[in-house]
Amino acid sequence: MVHSAYDAVELVAGVPGRIEAVASHAGKLLVAASDSEGFLRGSDCSLRIYSSPASSSEGGGEIRRDGPYALERHEQRFWRRPPLAMEVSATRDLLLSLSEWVALHRLPGLETVAVVSNKTKGANVFAWDDRRGLLAVGRQKRLTVFRLDSGREFVEVKEFGVPDILKSMAWCGDNICLGIRREYMIINSMTGALTEVFSSGRIAPPLVVPLHTGELLLGKDNIGVFVDQNGKLIQDGRIIWSDTPASVVIHRPYAVARLPRHVEIRSLRAPNALVQTVVLRDVQKLVQTDNCILAALSNSVHGLLPVPIGAQIVQLTASGEFEEALALCKLLPPEDSNLRAAKESSIHIRYGHFLFDSGSYEEAMEQFSDSHVDITYVLSLYPSIVLPQTHIIGEHDKLLDMHELARESSDATDEMESYSLQLHESDDKSPLEVKKMSHNALVALVKYLQKKRSGIIERATAEVTEEVVSGAVHHSLILSEPYKPKKPNKKRAQTHTSSIAREMATVLDTSLLQALILTGQSSGATELLKGLNYCDLKICEEFLKERSEYMVLLELYRSNEMHREALQLLNQLVEESKSEMENTDFNKKFNPQMIIEYLRPLCRSDPMLVLESSLYVLERNPSETIELFLSENVPADLVNSYLKQHAPNLQSTYLELMLSMSESGINPNLQNELVQLYLSEVLDWYKILKEEGSWTEKIYSPTRKKLISTLESNSGYNTDLLLKRLPQDALFEERAILYGKMNQHLRALSLYVHKLQMPERAVAYCDRVYEEGAQQPSKSNIYFNLLQIYLNPRKAEKEFEQKIIPVASQYPGIHKSSSAKFKGSRTGKKVVEIEGADDIRFSPSGTDSGRSDGDGDDASDGGPIMLNEALELLSQRWDRINGAQALRLLPRDTKLQDLVSFLEPLLRNSSEHLRNYLVIKNLIFRANLQVKDDLYKRRQAVVKIDGNSMCSLCNKRIANSAFAIYPNGQTLVHFVCFRESQQIKAVRGANSLKRR
């Protein structure tokens, strides 16, 4: 990077004597020069003031380049000795100089303001803080800090001792950086605390240069090191000069060093490249002014006047130094903000094209992003990206200006065309290199579009919101004027005449989706579609179909609410996956579960579409599909009716799974529907077996098992309808279950015992009824009913006919069994009464139970009784049966030995209860005695009343009045007071009850 940053102009020539110091004030040069005679004697030094003819006439305050400066004033013998340093305070119009001591003169008249002769005599270096008016002076091994008080005199603030003689110093905040022989130190101006920084170079003396940021540049031979105010090194902060500099001044954005053979100018930005070399030999001093740098030779003064920033930017841009050109753009004056923005944008665009052509795609995208160029401009670099047809009219003026500036030295269109040729020409590059280049370029495009997306989507969303609000306001205005006469139809003015933001969002999202797919980021494309997006449906659909990106295509359909198309595609993919079993990846990717997951969010918004699309998965994954219906609360009646119409073979499957998976069960209509389906299938199966002659009640098909299980575990079905459909000569177990649901237990037990000949089932039936009715006082009657059926079948049949048949005449499936006469005998001998069985009346539960026959009743003649089953029931369920009633029902010839297993535990249990009752009675009696004894003891309490005993209620002496004592044995009250207090409590209690 070499360009002309400064123009060297000779300002003053032929100064008599030797120039010792130089400064500038109000556009004039102040030159301290030893007179020719004084120079020989080594003493007096004069001050010469030079001015430009143009500046004196116009009153300018800057060093000008038009014409040589002429001597305006000459103050002879201004100093007795040549000044070691001279500095101008422009804000205070003061001239500070260090000769024999520090002196302060007023400008422009040069009146002496203050002389610090005591503490500064013999000093060799000073540092001036113009903002705070602080002066640090180094003399021998002492450092003294002064403050300018009221602009008239210096007041000493602090004085510190230093390790060695000071060679250089500079203020850095509250600290002062000191250059002492071969090292640098930081001293705090308030406390005097010293901190070592590092050693200086071996050749050159220490050099401390302050920067405008408060940092420091410390010299170390030919290297300048950047440190902060505390002396800490700044990373990558160093300048390497071509030689050891004698002095360095900072003039943003450059550092200017005085070298033996020339003046070297380097950039302050890393890597601190060489900017310019000005050939000026034997330069004695370099002084920074507001607008230039003064270079003092032995008897002449040159000015390094900066080249205008705009000209430097043009030079750097033309030479390809884009970063330096951008850094200089920041130095343009604030009033030229438009020019600055245009130049920066132009440089960013050209820099972006340069980087893009060089293969640095991500860096190129950063430059395009910083240029604020339209995204369509960047997308034009990618011919593989298909853009939607839009009418985007960008910010024309701004874009045209930027494009014109971008074409000042080269045409951007040519660069784009050259890049396209570079991509598609296979002669120069191999296909692998072209593919890699294209992939890297697309990856950079993805990052660029993602960076731009948030702002563009936000603007598009705001535009949509504004249109919705405007439309709502317009609609409300129409509704508020219902009686306004109609006018001829006119096209209503649109609140948004264009949709630039939405079209730009469409371009961006469509391009981003394609770039993500082309770079293999399918997951990123899916995430893009899951959120708010403006992808062009037609372009993206064709693009995804060409590349078989079905997962992304499904998400595209979903985001556009094209659920029917998505489900059709998904069914097709699942079928293809099933047919191509060798492609394991494809099988893992598409399966029926995906259809279920897709349908899940649609269950509430579009249940009919869910039902239409669920037939495929209902056949293959019925449990998952039913779980979907249940978890998403799809109306069960709707599902059932749809399946009944379109897939009747799946209706029972749905109802079964729903019944098994639903904790609260299903509604009675659906329960009845399921039972009717089971019954229809069982009846068809029964007819087939009956025709074949192989029907028995002990045969169970899977459907019949389901029917029986459903009848037993549920009660929401219609028993009347089911009984009408049952055949008269079969399916007795189902009939018994239905009778049980109707609380017609006698009929149910009769069917289990006589029709099905399964006594164990009858006992299990009684156990279930007993446990379900455990809270009812007549819970044991169910077993008595069974005993009646066992021991008195004629009476049971008679009660069956008298009490059930008239009620059941409405059921044609119920028929009378052939009457049989049973003969039997009844024991006339009474058995020991058990459990208080005498005079116990029996009140049977249910609708079909009757009273037991008395002791004189005889069983009907003929017909076998089931004595063994009755005895077994008594022995197993002795604790659930009324013993006295059971004994009355047994035949008279029943052997007592057969009743041992029934009577023994019954008597044992009765005796045990009796003993327990006696124990409890004795315990209660003992507790009663203890209470009486305690009461007696408490009634023997002695209360002593003397002349000092007081009533706790009225606080008067009790004396000889009647008294009462509270249960605690200590509180004494007048009996009258006690009675009144009780009456008051009673009245309050009555009032509180009235309020309630």
From TrEMBL:
Its main location: cytoplasm. The keyword Disulfide bond does not apply. It is found in: Cytoplasm. This is CNH domain-containing protein. Residues 840-861 are annotated as: Disordered. Residues 16-293 form the CNH domain. It comes from Urochloa decumbens. One of its GO terms (cellular component) is cytoplasm. PROSITE patterns: CHCR, CNH. InterPro entries: CHCR, Clathrin_H-chain/VPS_repeat, CNH_dom, Vam6/VPS39/TRAP1, VPS39/TGF_beta_rcpt-assoc_1, VPS39/TGFA1_Znf.
